[in-house]
Amino acid sequence: MDNAGQGLHARVLESLGPEIAAGEHRPGTVLRTDELAQRFDVSRTVIREAVRVLESMHLVESRRRVGVTVRATEEWNVYDPRVIRWRLAGADRPRQLRSLTVLRCAVEPVAAGLAARHASPEQCAALTEHAMGMVATSRGQQLDAYLVHDTAFHKTLLTASGNEMFARLHEVVAAILAGRTHHHVMFTDPDPAAVTLHVQVAEAIRTGDAARAEELTREITVGAMAELDILAP
Amino acid sequence: MDNAGQGLHARVLESLGPEIAAGEHRPGTVLRTDELAQRFDVSRTVIREAVRVLESMHLVESRRRVGVTVRATEEWNVYDPRVIRWRLAGADRPRQLRSLTVLRCAVEPVAAGLAARHASPEQCAALTEHAMGMVATSRGQQLDAYLVHDTAFHKTLLTASGNEMFARLHEVVAAILAGRTHHHVMFTDPDPAAVTLHVQVAEAIRTGDAARAEELTREITVGAMAELDILAP
DNA sequence: GGGAAGATTAAGTATGACGTTTGCGTCACA
DNA sequence: TGTGACGCAAACGTCATACTTAATCTTCCC
Fold this sequence. Notes:
Chains A, B: InterPro entries: GntR_C, TF_FadR/GntR_C, Tscrpt_reg_HTH_GntR, WH-like_DNA-bd_sf, WH_DNA-bd_sf. By secondary structure, chain A is mostly helical.
């Protein structure tokens, strides 16, 4: 566990949060602050601060005389990076990974089209550099090095779109890519066709060809869905 | 103001949050818990709980010996519903509205395509009902009634996609639609073409025509972008 | 049997004390 | 003059306790 977060409340959060996100406490379960304080051997104040954060994520609801109630999954703030992380670490990881991948496939092609219009020269250079890095590490079981370039490529792309909502999804894409490398069946080297597509996307963005950038990125994301057996829209 | 949130910490949050989200405190500004306690006339405990929530939204960072520092905009959890609400109420409302609209335009067509495959009979009925409601209220300055149906239509559509990430964006779409009605230049009745498109989308989803549902929805969202002078991708 | 008044319970708030970290100034030394 | 170690103090972090508030349950009377 990485319960090393500074402060006791962070420690409590990193224990309680994953428990709830993983579904260990069924929705409707009530937790009492006193019991939690006893369980974690901290004061009620610390528990209250942790509960406030969980409440702000809509994971729980705190009511007087009742206690801290676990909310239904549909109410959770599923875009909160920590909620995403906790859920990916839990039981319904596959389901979560599919949801995120579908979201990614909707967003990233559009982001690529925007990037073709708004990317700065520096961002274009970074895209090309990371695409080249992917080529260089695509053979010979250099999966970790490949992942670094892949992640950086997509982060740069999303940022270059100039849309802050897109940009903030880079963590989601990073989680997807990391998940594929570390958990999915990826013992073999990356698909050469996918690597080529990244190079071509970088090229399309550099030359300002929005339609082409979008279409090529769509091919990448369709491939990502295929890996999870999601039929393309 | 709707500072009626239960509890003192909620009251503090609903004052401090919007201030920060609106940019009244430049990034890097330090707030001291003691000063805040004095300013809001509450105990430091209450301030600390509010700060914890702001910290969980990545709006601020709390460090020992330094104080509570306002973070840069790029670090905010821009998908948190409250952050969205606060920013829409603040100065850079137009910018925020554009970002959200672009996101919506990337997501909603894909969601419509998925809905054509996964929508339940009840959801299909609801879509048709709300589309009809839009038709019925599209003339004669019934803007508020129209907005209710429009919002319900898109919420149902996003939910029917079966993807939880899409479903949770219904608040974003609701904010966009409400923003258009209440602030944008919409003194006239809605565009008849847009109303027709909604009816057709409902029909396409009912008949399971994913490609058509996606394309028709894309037309709706392109229209939404045009209203904000955003050139279509 | 139903409704209202009161008891109960658990969260909410306030307060004061103490602990802990850490930015920053000071001073000595090379 | 520059650099390093040292130590102070500021601000957050934690705790214990007492009190307040409000929702739920119980009881009792009509």
